[in-house]
Amino acid sequence: MQLKQLQLRNFCQHPDLLLDFAPGLTGIVGANGSGKSNCVTAARASLTGDFASPGLKEANIRRDAPDDAPAFVHASWEHEGLSFEVMRSLRPSSQKLIIGDRKLTRVSEIADELERVLGVDKYIVENYLFIAQWQLFDFLSSDQATRMRGFARLCQVDKAEKIWSLLGTQIGVDRELAYGVEDTRD
């Protein structure tokens, strides 16, 4: 998955910010309070709809923005050759996902489609793809059982177990079919 572009309008301390990202690793640097973490929050929120700020998502609207000024996060992504755009508007409150010629606007439809496209659920995106600086230490200092559960969820062990079970069932069915076939090869 690659974030191609991130646009923030009246989001936190950003009146109007447009960031273009190239493939590979990107570092965002700047002075304390300049909005680096809020750029990461915005990218994550574009995929999850969760702005991870105390209170309402409207609390992320830039304080000195005019009352009628739009406030939003707009992100362009690419995943496995599929390009899509996500817009999460804080004011007026709305959202949309654009994939090809399809445009989804309902929260549940967007969440379902992003889960299908990305192959992971919102929990994985929120907790493992975008990690705030201070949360990384919480994970690393957690007990082994907690880290193992997190790793199992991240690696989708439950899905692998289902596939293994289905494969075992299919092998059993195929074996029963094969008993009636005689191998006459030399």
Note the beta-strand portion: 15-25%
Mean pLDDT rating = 84
User: Judging from the principal axes of the Cα atoms, what is the shape?
Assistant: elongated
Would you identify the CATH H-level superfamily of the domain at 2-120?
P-loop containing nucleotide triphosphate hydrolases
Specify the CATH architecture of the domain at 2-120.
Answer: 3-Layer(aba) Sandwich
In the CATH hierarchy, the third-tier topology of the domain at 2-120 is known as Rossmann fold
**CATH uppermost class of the domain at 2-120:** Alpha Beta
Q: Using DSSP, what is the number of strands?
A: 6
Q: Outline the low-pLDDT stretches.
A: none
Structural class: alpha+beta
Radius of gyration: 22 Å
Order of helices and strands: EEHEEEEHHHHH
Arrangement of strands in the largest sheet: 2-1-3-4-5-6
